[in-house]
Amino acid sequence: MGLCFRSMLLLFFLFSCATFTSIEAYDALDPNGNITINWDIITWTGNGYTAVVTISNFQKYRHIQAPGWTLGWTWAKSEVILTMAGGQTTEQGDCSRFQGSNIPHCCKKDPTVVDLLPGTPYNQQIANCCRGGVIDSFAQDPPAHSASSFQLTVGEAGTTNTTVDLPKNFTLKAPGPGYTCGPAEIAMPTKFISQDGRRATQAMMTWKVKCTYSQFLAQKIPSCCVSMSAFYSHEIVPCPKCACGCMNNLTQPGSCVDPNSPYIETVVSARKKANNLDPLVQCTSFMCPIRVHWHVKQNYKEYWRVKVTISNFNYRMNYTNWNLVVQHPNFDNLTQVFSFNYKSLSPYPTINDTAMLYGVKFYNDFLNQAGPLGNVQSELLFRKESSFSFEKGWGFPRRVYFNGDNCVMPPPDKYPSLPNSGLRENIPVLMILISLLFSL
Ligand SMILES: *[C@@H]1O[C@H](CO)[C@@H](O)[C@H](O)[C@H]1NC(C)=O
Ligand SMILES: *[C@@H]1O[C@H](CO)[C@@H](O)[C@H](O)[C@H]1NC(C)=O
Ligand SMILES: *[C@@H]1O[C@H](CO)[C@@H](O)[C@H](O)[C@H]1NC(C)=O
Ligand SMILES: *[C@@H]1O[C@H](CO)[C@@H](O)[C@H](O)[C@H]1NC(C)=O
Ligand SMILES: *[C@@H]1O[C@H](CO)[C@@H](O)[C@H](O)[C@H]1NC(C)=O
Ligand SMILES: *[C@@H]1O[C@H](CO)[C@@H](O)[C@H](O)[C@H]1NC(C)=O
Ligand SMILES: *[C@@H]1O[C@H](CO)[C@@H](O)[C@H](O)[C@H]1NC(C)=O
User: Fold this and answer.
1) Which GO cellular component terms, listed alphabetically, does the Swiss-Prot or TrEMBL entry include (predicted)?
2) Which pTM does this prediction carry?
């Protein structure tokens, strides 16, 4: 019975491994998630136009964190950016063909735009700008925070909706790779509703670019793993060894930080100076920047309780506005969440098994860098379903994402097992039986 179940689990595991690569290209828990870039021409200027460009994040839980987005494109002809507000290009490029005082903001064929920082003078701001390129996810925060805008005046461009050329080859970095953008497509002109809601104006012309995320493109190695424990088992199931890389002192000495080193402060601050975005992790067998621990804590008559702990092992990252997405069939009957916010995500209308958990503002929405403060925790109380049982690892999640990235789970045959239900527990009994037989 136990054996049979385990081989089924193994089969399931092999199957999920086999399908993993094909699933990765899109996100099963947010199948329509996308970032849409709206390019709204507000006025024609005689030798070009003024446009407001808005990057809207329609992903439920994947946000763009510091140091923020970078947007690039290639002009179709010899367009130049005369002025900008609410954003800037990283390089001006060669504007030597212009003279006098009206030197363009950017003459590059393939400009790269970044957001301005908070505290930018008012005369350089526009609505929804200047948050250092940080864009919140769609489900976590008010919609205004899930978009970012800048304004640009383009010269040497078409001056009507039939002569203007759409820019090509959009690239979105957030801040690293991961997004793929489609071509710009002409869309219905955007309508802007006045603040009192009594009048709508509309863009002269609008085009849209859709960008989608793939974890596979974003990074070859995972950044998060799951460990497990349960009140009914004395074992703690750690994150899989080498889940995010292996500790290798020979080929890469100092690839991680020893938390017991007496010089830890010095080591960390020296390594941080190398202004690098790569994680600088604590030395562990799994080497992940983030670990999510799921502990099945208590069993009541009608309820059961789980404790979730998120630990940060990265010395180079404070996570603001972090979120966790968990898939478990009992989220249908979640009764209470302590000290995290909860939102039900229903990727498919009939299934309500996926939840987004995120921090409470000013309390635990900030996950501090590795160290004594680098963790947040919460407890979840579920009402048992009729078919409830702790058997077969049922109490553990099917899928866990941290900030939208898939966390590596222990293999199903390693899940904490109920006493007397698993092969491992049966072995001693078998051994005793066999030795009894032989001693007869
Ligand atoms: C982007 O996602 C939103 C929200 O899911 C959806 O309404 C919209 O149609 C999507 N856009 C495109 C171009 O697919
Ligand atoms: C261009 O503008 C004309 C009216 O000025 C309108 O009829 C036409 O649909 C517009 N075309 C596009 C592609 O927006
Ligand atoms: C598009 O952009 C990428 C990266 O910036 C570049 O490698 C590629 O050559 C560009 N393609 C075109 C057609 O401009
Ligand atoms: C690598 O270094 C860590 C900490 O310094 C140590 O615990 C570990 O045993 C070392 N691993 C190997 C393979 O030498
Ligand atoms: C994280 O925040 C703490 C406290 O605000 C700060 O001391 C530390 O330098 C920050 N670390 C990083 C990597 O930004
Ligand atoms: C999913 O279940 C939760 C908890 O019972 C409930 O609050 C939420 O409204 C449900 N969502 C949907 C879409 O049914
Ligand atoms: C659990 O949730 C489902 C779907 O919302 C509902 O049909 C069922 O009655 C609930 N079970 C309990 C024990 O509350």
Assistant:
1) plasma membrane; side of membrane
2) 0.80
Q: pLDDT (tens digit, 9 = 90+) per residue, 276-327?
A: 677 889 989 999 999 999 999 999 989 999 999 999 999 988 998 899 999 9
For ligand 5, the distance from its centroid to the CA atom of residue 368, given in whole angstroms, is 7
Residue 72 CA to ligand 1 center (angstroms) comes to: 21
CATH class of 221-246+286-422: mainly beta
Which residue of 303, 331, 333, 388 sits with most ligand 7 atoms within 8 Å of its CB, as the best mutation to test the pocket? Answer: 333
Q: What is the DSSP letter of 262?
A: T
Domain ranges of the chain: 35-217, 221-246+286-422
Q: Which of 49, 47, 72 is nearest to 167 (CA)?
A: 72
Which ligand 2 atom sits nearest the alpha carbon of residue 186? 13
Pocket of ligand 5 (CB under 6 A): 316-318, 368-369
- 35-217 and 221-246+286-422: identical CATH topology: yes
Q: What is the pLDDT of residues 218-262, one digit of tens each?
A: 877 889 999 999 999 988 999 999 999 888 766 566 678 888 777
Q: Rounded to the nearest whole angstrom, what is the distance from the C-alpha of residue 356 to the centroid of ligand 6?
A: 12
pLDDT at 328: 92
Can you read off the two tokens belonging to residue 315? 């010395």
Say if domain 35-217 classifies as CATH 2.60.40.290: yes
Q: How remote is the CA of residue 245 from the centroid of ligand 4, in Å?
A: 14
Question: Measured between alpha carbons, how far is residue 52 from residues 185, 203, 215, 417 in Å?
Answer: 16, 9, 29, 57
